[in-house]
Hints:
The chain is α+β, with helices and mostly antiparallel strands. The chain has two domains: 3-98 and 215-410, Glutaredoxin (3-Layer(aba) Sandwich); 99-147, no CATH class. 40% of the residues lie in helices and 9% in strands. The protein is built from 15 helices and ten strands. The strands form two sheets. The protein has an eight-stranded mixed beta sheet with strand order 1-10-9-6-7-8-4-5, covered by helices on one side. Strands 2-3 form a two-stranded antiparallel ribbon. It is globular, with a radius of gyration of 22 Å.
Amino acid sequence: MRPLRFAVVMFALMELLMSSRASADEPTKVAPQPRVTVKPAELEALFKGKESSPDELKAMADKLEKSYEGAPPEAVRMLIAIARGSQMGPGEGWFGGSQSRYSWSWMAKKHEIEPTGSITEDKFKGPAKLFARLDRNKDGQVTADDLDWSDRHPVVQQFYMINRLFRKFDREGDGRVTREDLLAFFERAAQGKDAMSSDDFRDAMIGGLPGFLPGDAPTTEVLLKGLVRSEIGSLQEGPRVEETAPDFQLTSQDGTRTVRLSEQLGSKPIILVFGNFTCGPFRSMYPVVDDLYQRYRDDAIFLAVYVREAHPDDGWLMESNTRVGVKVSQPQTQAERVNVARQCYAKLRYTMPLLVDEIDDPVGNAYSGMPARMYLIDPAGKVVYKGGRGPFGFKSGELEQALLMLLLDLQK
């Protein structure tokens, strides 16, 4: 694309960012969210023409970055990263860490120990079952290391890698591996032999790693389109920790229940889980979140919110989705979105309630929930934990620890 066309895309994006901020006078309400001001056909035209060279794109990114004093908004950081050749990796653009009221410093202060110390079960100021879940490495003590979920931590990096490898076994793309899936993997890896060697196993496991699985890598044009359309993530940033959670009212995927967030406040913490059908990492990680629902459904209210597709077949199409039978266009009506939400509900076997966002994405934008994100809200309606943007920030273990510390804080 020509530099001029890229500049027009940036201008349209900046205009959208300026026009779509929620009213400061009504922080608890979901304000109407304007879409890009250019028409779809005009938007498509912006991406046609000769591609800019990497040096031209980098120069435009440098110029845009210098136009901001201090840290640019998330969407601007993502735009700059894309222009510099980002392939949507951890730590790039808007892929950062979480925010939380609770930290190791809070834990250490509550248990009256030094920040360099540790908490053993006999000194823990809470039930043994909470201690067991906070003790991530199961060494009989809770330390700062157990609560470290930064992308550079070895355990977190192992989680990323294990999830990528898990998806190689998951033939149905539903976040579950069956006995039949394991046998099918063996047949592929052994290539007709009765047994596979370490080389056979290695070749079967590391194919397509690191980086994207075959057929999934995006072009700069695809990423720019996804950014402007809010498919790879909302252009808004969502509430921060200690801010009031935006109120909303949505209907469940089966149409049998309407939920207003403010009416759920008062007795228990609330967990919001944002996601969509075409996000492969979300599908692989969602069952673990559903396990949390089963474990803590008496302690907290869980609500899943269905948002716009990350990888529709008319957008950033991923062949890994096609191989598992997940191939849908971006819904254009509420009825179409509900239909896809029901497919997702059935395939992933949701047990928590699944609410469907309106077609103009008021809730997804208010919480910056695209393509996937998790929040924890205290009984008073304040945000306690804001997970990082999925897929890298979608860390169920981190959410669980935040919930446990909130429960510990709330106990009489």
